[in-house]
Amino acid sequence: MVFCPQLLRTSISGAKWRILVRNLSLISFFRLTLVLMLFLMVGAAAAGTFTETDKSVRSIVSGIVSYTRWPSLSGQPKLCVYASSHYTHALTSKDGQSELPYTPVIVRNDQEALSATCDAIYFGAESPVKQRELISQYQGRALLLISEQNPECIIGSAFCLIIDRNHVRFSVNLDALTRSGVRVNPDVLMLARNKQHG
């Protein structure tokens, strides 16, 4: 059956026509509203789901940041997370259960990281050499550096996550930490030592 408004209009009076059009508009509006609500609910549910690895990375990074002190910082530190990270969503999204001990900022390149005046940087796929190049541009500022793609942890970041399947641990580059200008609670360093050997 083909809907033809001109043919229908000739056989229906003006008042009935207005009622019919209004009812069709309401039905269309309710359908659209229902579809939008469904998308919003599915989107919210998908946004709130973290894998166990996501939760572990978020927990370790939050712990490191919360046990770090900057010499001249009042308030929450700003953690710049490189968009190349596999855990950008976990490190920057609110999960509704726990507050982040930092203000997250997603950066795509070194220029964005420099202009964001980060207090801490979380590197994704950036190489240790690239990390060291960025650090040299931040000279004179206290800066906490964490990476997920630096398993040797010899140059670059002070803290290096080691992600093996669903198991997440970290190691510490004491030389980089000493030069970073931040102070970290010794318990975190002991935890890293225990996790390296355990």
UniProtKB/TrEMBL annotation:
Any Pfam family the entry gives: DUF4154
InterPro entries, per database record: YfiR/HmsC-like (IPR025293)
Superkingdom field: Bacteria
Protein name, entry field: YfiR
